[in-house]
Amino acid sequence: MSVKDLHFRYSTDNSSMLDIPAWSLEPGEQVFLYGPSGTGKSTFLNLLAGILLPNTGEICVLGKRLNTLSGRQRDKWRAQHIGVVFQQFNLIPYLDAVSNIALAAHFAGTKKTKHRALELLNALGIDQNLHNQAASLLSIGQQQRVAIARALVNSPELLIVDEPTSALDQQNRDAFMSLLFDQAKLHQTALVFVSHDLALADAFHRVEALADLNQAQDKY
To answer: What is the average pLDDT across 177-185?
Structure first.
């Protein structure tokens, strides 16, 4: 992944929120990106995932320039190559664990989705009697594991994780991090992890402050 001369601002704002001259990530590398709330961390992740497009500049992921793709092409390409673990997990509450995972595979056009979903759930320690349980009835720890499985179901080359531990106690936080690293290592997946919690930083190959990357004059 490489970022070059990235400028981004929301249409309602006259000042640049992000101005990043250069940034890159090697295959299999794990980077911890930190900064206070409101500094543009989630916006940067959305740009890396192609959910947002820069006003100017270039984002190249796995050799693909994201701004050359249509919205529909970006959605399918993201589903095939990028896994995202959201802060609030974003599971569909009325769907069971298997269906939440299979839905992500469906968007990527992946076959044999149920077998892959069951394989991941078993690897992540979800009991078989919970596989068909609605997501809303699962514990926070169980939802964490389903969210990781959903992000990994398409064997992505890049995993993006947006502050998923902010509402967790230390025990659940440590368990989540252990599972995340185990699965990233198993699948040789590059990892971009965003958080304001520097206590998590020691486990990462690289630790960077967004403020050091962002040259915008009016930082949030």
So the answer is: 84
Cα–Cα distance measured from residue 81 to residue 16, given in angstroms and rounded to the nearest whole number? 29
- Please, are residues 193 and 204 in contact by the beta-carbon 8 Å criterion? yes
In order of 51, 163, 179, the CA distances from 42 in angstroms are 11, 9, 22
Residue 199 CB coordination number (10 Å): 10
Handedness of CA 90, 208, 77, 122 (dihedral sign): negative
Q: From residue 33, give the alpha-carbon distance in Å to each of 6, 39, 56, 135, 201.
A: 17, 11, 22, 29, 9
Nearest Cα neighbor of 30 from 192, 194, 219 is 192
Global pTM value = 0.86
Structural domains in the chain plus CATH codes: 2-213 (3.40.50.300)
Average pLDDT over residues 117-131: 89
- 52-57 long-range contacts (CB < 8 A, ≥24 apart) are 52/8, 54/6, 54/7, 54/8, 54/18, 55/7, 55/8, 55/9, 56/5, 56/6, 56/7, 57/3, 57/4, 57/5, 57/6, 57/7, 57/20
So what's the pLDDT on residue 132?
93
Least confident residue range of 49-53, 172-176, 197-201: 172-176
